[in-house]
Amino acid sequence: MKALLASVAVIVAAVIAGQATATVDNDGPAVGQRPSVGDIPGTTFNSRCSFSHRNFDDMIVSPGRRGAAHDHTYLGNVSTNAHSTLASLRRAGTTCQRDEETAAYWVPTLLDPMGRPVKPSRTVRAVIYYRRGTVQPASAFPQGLRMIAGDSMATAPQPLQVTSWSCGFAGSYPRSAYIPRCPAMRQAMLAFHVVFPNCWNGRDLDSADHKSHMTYAAYGLCPPSHPVEVPTISLTVRYPVRGGRGFELSSGGQYTGHGDFVNAWDQRELERLVENCLNKLAHCGSGG
Q: How far is CA 258 from CA 80, 106, 148, in A?
């Protein structure tokens, strides 16, 4: 009996540490076994969403107050403003590849050394990855869910797992907490990355601080306080500039990077993608 209990403890510890070794092929995990954290990162579907518009609104932090926020750059839904509602977002169009992806995404506007707004590249577009980052299957976000990733008031570097800068496809330049000066080489353009939390408390579509209803999984597990596993959204915004000294965010400096999301997807399509791609451990890309 002691030997059996010891074996069980080892297995549980392996799952929690993200080191379980169930064999996984292109069709998913071995029959009768759930995936380990190590099996999950390749499961994704993604979108390319071009720049939509800018304004000084924030429907999450300052709803109904036009011009009450810092400058924001919007992707996806073409109508997002201070007066937006789930109904108005659902009626609007999108700059994303999928017509059903009428979700709203926005980030603080990047400013050049002269204080002028920099638009994301229309030719490269922003890339939005939906990944499964939990051992348990993910559920689609409920309609109207709002969340913010990152800290708009940060005065020091944030964790690189949440927000970071890079030189896009120039992989030899690691991500950093500050805006780099990218080299003069093809496709080495400035990029901003933000990763949203993937555990929901199962009750609230928002919270007073716009964050407490969400949190990040640890080792692929959501805490009891936030038991509902949802997809991990990784947003990468690419700019047609190389960055460097003098560039900053409209929210102030280089460290205040953050991203906002409102789920206004066609819910049936979102649920289909989550089930067929993320929960079946399939890499669907921008198709699926």
A: 17, 9, 7
Number of residues that this document lists for the chain: 288
Q: Would you give the DSSP letter of residue 39?
A: G
CB 36 within 8 A of CB 20: yes
Give, as one character, the DSSP assignment of residue 38.
Answer: G
pTM (predicted TM-score): 0.85
Question: What is the torsional sign of CA 137, 139, 140, 141?
Answer: negative
Q: Which two tokens stand for residue 29?
A: 């995990």
Separation CA 133–CA 127 (nearest Å): 18
231-253 pLDDT, tens digit each = 999 999 999 999 999 999 999 99
237: its two tokens:
């915004």
The structure tokens listed for 125 are 């577009």
Q: Give the position of tokens 């789920």.
A: 263
Instruction: Residue 186: count other Cβ atoms within 10 Å of its Cβ.
Output: 8
- Sequence spans of domains, the chain: 40-285
Strand partners, 228: 200
- Quick check: 265 and 128 in contact, CB under 8 A? no
Pairing of strands 283-285, 44-49: parallel
